[in-house]
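re: ur question from yesterday

yeah so i grabbed the chain u mentioned. its 375 aa long if i counted rite. heres the sequnce exactly as i have it in my notes:
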Amino acid sequence: MAEPPTGTAPRDVVDTLLGFARTLRSAGVPASPDRVEAMLEALGILRVLDPRDVYWAGRLTLCGGPDDLDRYDCAFAAWFAGEMPRAVPATAQRRPELAVSAPLDPGPGAGEDSDGPDLATRAGADEVLRHRDVGDMTPAEREHLRRLFALLVPASPMRPARRRRPSSGGSVHPARTVRQALHDGGEVRRLLHRRPQARPRRVVLLVDVSGSMTPYADALLRFAHAAVRARPGSTEVFTIGTRLTRVTRELRLRDPDKALAASGSAIPDWSGGTRLGEVLKAFLDRWGQRGTARGAVVVLCSDGWERGDAALLGEQMTRLRRLAHTVVWVNPHKGRTGYEPLTAGMRAALPSVDHFVSGHSMAAFEELTGVIGRA
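ran it thru and got these structure tokens back, copy pasting raw so excuse formatting
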């Protein structure tokens, strides 16, 4: 790719940087449109193919504070598939080349007669990967998807607490207003206000690990790991199949691979059958009724293949709906063209579901984080 003229940027570079900005926002960096525009202007002046210029142009324009720097570095390394550019001595003359991996499925003759990698190569591969069905991925693609999961930061649903705090708006705080008036000689000069504090709402994830969900179980547990790491005290994770297994403690491990290995050792019914009604009843009897599901956002991740009594599943879903604040059902098959919820389990469960979403790709998981956050 030829170097762009001063003050402009080719379209493929623009698409690359817009995808990078979406990755930053998923990682928690507020890469707003005006900041992205500032980065594009900077790269129109600098050398767009120079990795150090790209790195520092983005760092100086897209980051809003010190807390964003580490997230930016991780996102930059993951998006461009290279190590973060680091400061070098002034005597160093040679600039490093941008480490960009080849496309996930290179065609015949890839790498021949090439002028070198460009910024759009990695971005195009990642953008395609975001929308690929997890069940159809190759081992290499699954390995790369794990790096994207490390950047996923699920949003926290909030709820109003009983305790209130001082605020510029809201209801009048009589005690503080009177105390301030006494301090001012008995004259009420202004009204002081207060509003309820916001506290994280509990999130409960029930992940189906039966045989029909095997292609998606790894990705769903990685999403659960990201949720537990983001909200250690307000997220619970259970696996469902023929038995109910709590894996919250195992998923609190920092390393995702170690967390999934520990969870796999704790799950006795991996790739087994499906008895959603019986397992959901066991969850509500032991955990949900005692407070775990009360007022929580409950996310059930399953394809709805019920080998037990579908009527029992419908009864337990109705019971869950009365306890929970929001019920979300994640079905990986919903993302496929022409899908209709025709199985007996899905027909019994859907009347008690608030949000029915897909969970077949990275883009679908990003959408799921928004659904949970808005709940």
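noticed a couple things. Confidence is low (pLDDT under 50) at residues 1-11, 82-117. also The two ends are 45 Å apart (CA to CA).
anyway ttyl
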